[in-house]
Specification:
By secondary structure, the protein is an alpha/beta fold. It folds into two domains: 4-191 and 378-397, Glycogen Phosphorylase B (Rossmann fold), CATH 3.40.50; 199-375, Glycogen Phosphorylase B (Rossmann fold, 3-Layer(aba) Sandwich), CATH 3.40.50. 44% of the residues lie in helices and 18% in strands. It contains 14 helices and 15 strands. It has a seven-stranded parallel sheet with strand order 5-4-3-6-7-8-9, with helices on both faces. Helix 1 crosses helix 14 and helix 11 crosses helix 13. It is globular and about 70 Å long.
Length: 402
């Protein structure tokens, strides 16, 4: 493919070369290697939809990702995998790629990774773009880990040319806690592949049978890593009350993580063994959502959880905690309900309200699907990134010739 594209006046314009870095799983982490994070899924959706006549996309994956083969279809994979936290050899390999390919923009995510990549970007004179899915102050990290990563976040936030946040809430929190000029921060909402998450194309029978879920059961689904910050224990406490009113309810948990054994003990304590299914990590989340009556996300910490968009696209009502960017996704009473974190009583009440009222459930599902098609598609998201890349590329070019 040509490295040039036709401008509005017929002139030949150089393709903008963008190097993305994305984190993935490593040996020694508690989560299995087949985990797909929201950041990885969003990266793929951007790569799928970006205008390749105007942009050349390069991707450096720090770790193993089950999406690597998909990434290869839409970008050039470059060597980067770090073997330890400050692997200079990995940085040298990435620096060689930047020099050889004449990269224009480096776009990264994560505290440590952003700090290290921006050292390279500064040396090479690149435009540096940083995506923040959550404000650092809101991330559910242990105290020691926060102390270690705080300097990286401060440095990378100040070194970048522009910060992209996935929600207005995240932007406000960064401004409040880091003192960053709000003009330096842009909000670009995440988007999904609405064709993949289309409820009309999926047969629910095979997946329901494979999980041994009775046809008359109500299915309340949670898609989240099994970590303490996702708030599963508050859902289990709510489940005790829900089952008193709707005894044929099944709680389906998709995901895995270090907190699984603790959750099993809570389930045993509450006598929920027959009502909870651990489905593990799944590559067919759309099929899981097809058999679900709703999505519940009782998180204590979030950014802009992609699974809410996926559930809405599948016409699932959503019950989620009223935190971070979630209120920018869910309209209270229209396509779901927002509840207070750690409030199991309110959580149980809202879940029961939807399960008992099919008309309400259907209306919320319809409204959610419509919202996704209007506001949260991968194409719309990628178009916003194209505008941003073009703006900062042109700005850098002007600076070089002034």
């Amino acid at each position: 493919m040509s490295t040039f594209w036709k401008g509005l006046k017929g002139e030949r314009v150089k393709k903008i070369k963008v190097l993305w870095t994305v984190g993935a799983e490593r040996i020694g982490l508690d989560k299995p290697w087949d985990a797909i994070t929201g950041a990885q899924a969003t990266t793929l959706e951007i790569l799928r939809n970006i205008d390749t006549s105007r942009f050349s996309m390069y991707l450096a994956i720090d770790g193993y990702s089950p999406l690597e083969e998909e990434y290869k279809k839409h970008s050039k994979i470059v060597p980067f995998k770090t073997r330890w936290q400050f692997d200079n050899s990995a940085l040298n390999r990435l620096g060689a790629v930047i020099h050889k390919e004449r990269i224009d923009i480096i776009h990264t995510q994560g505290m440590r990774r952003a700090f290290l990549c921006f050292l390279l970007g500064q040396k090479a004179g690149l435009t540096k773009i940083l995506t923040r899915h959550s404000a650092f102050c809101d991330i559910y990290y242990p105290r020691l880990k926060k102390l270690v990563y705080d300097p990286f976040d401060r440095c990378s936030s100040k070194a970048t040319d522009v910060i992209i946040t996935v929600a207005e809430y995240v932007k406000r929190r960064i401004v409040e806690t880091r003192g960053i000029n709000p003009e330096k921060i842009r909000v670009i909402y995440n988007g999904i592949n609405a064709d993949r998450f289309d409820p009309d194309r999926i047969n629910p029978v095979p997946i329901r049978n494979s999980l041994c879920i009775p046809r008359d059961a109500k299915v309340v689904t949670t898609v989240a890593s099994l970590v303490e910050g996702k708030g599963h224990k508050y859902l289990f406490k709510a489940a005790v009350e829900i089952l008193k009113k709707i005894p044929n309810t099944i709680f389906l948990l998709v995901g895995d993580g270090y907190y699984k054994e603790r959750l099993k003990k809570i389930i045993k304590e509450y006598k929920l063994n027959r009502s909870v299914i651990f489905a593990g990590f799944r590559r067919d989340v759309e099929s899981i959502l097809k058999i679900s009556d709703m999505l519940v996300l009782p998180s204590l910490s979030e950014g802009f959880p992609i699974v809410i968009l996926e559930a809405m696209a599948m016409r699932n009502p959503v019950v989620a905690t009223n935190i971070s960017g979630i209120p920018e996704m869910v309209d209270e009473g229209k396509d779901g309900f927002l509840v207070s974190p750690r409030d199991s009583v309110e959580l149980a009440s809202r879940i029961c309200e939807i399960l008992k009222d099919k008309n309400l459930s259907d209306l919320m599902g319809k409204n959610g699907r419509m919202k996704i098609l209007e506001k949260f598609t991968g194409k719309r998201m990628s178009e916003n990134y194209e505008v941003l890349y073009s703006e900062f590329y042109q700005k850098k070019q002007r600076e070089r010739y002034e």
